[in-house]
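Protein modeling request. Please complete all fields; requests missing the sequence field cannot be processed.
Requester role: graduate student
Desired output: 3D structure, token encoding
Chains: 1
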Amino acid sequence: MGKTGRGVCEYLDVDFNEIDLLMGTFTKSFGAAGGYIAANQKIVNLLRKRSELVNRGEQMPPVVATQILECLKRMQTEEGVQEIQTLAKNSRYFRKALHRMGFIVIGEKDSPVVPLMLYNPGKIAEFSRMCLKENIAVVVVGYPATPVISSRVRFCLSVAHKKEDLDKALDVIDKIGDMLNLKMAKKQVC
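Delivered output (190 residues):
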């Protein structure tokens, strides 16, 4: 998210100094594990004192920290900035195509994590199986991570995905959406 990949603050043009606490994950954007919390020293000390995860959790392995640092370095190069802009463009393309097909898609338009609402928890496993059968890996999310009737599938786009990959996935998703009756967006009359 953001013009140079610095996240939601950059994306929404909010000064980092205006934020009391920043929190994020390294799993999606960095292909790693773990996350971060950034705040003033008082808040950090309070979290260290009261958080079970800090007190009992595992430390980040050096190889994971190295992965994250290398990603950050690449993002600061001209090629990295171009990749970030390409990813945002592909995210908008993918999201608009899903919406045009009649799916309900939520989230920010430039986000490479594209949640498509399934609503019916009984369709989660079947959607996932049908996608996997067509060599498309998806992340399905249901209760208790979401309310029972807010089941969804998350597509996690990568800069490695080419337009042909997205089009193939969209074709498969379109067919599965018809088979499972998942296209619930209201059609706009022109």
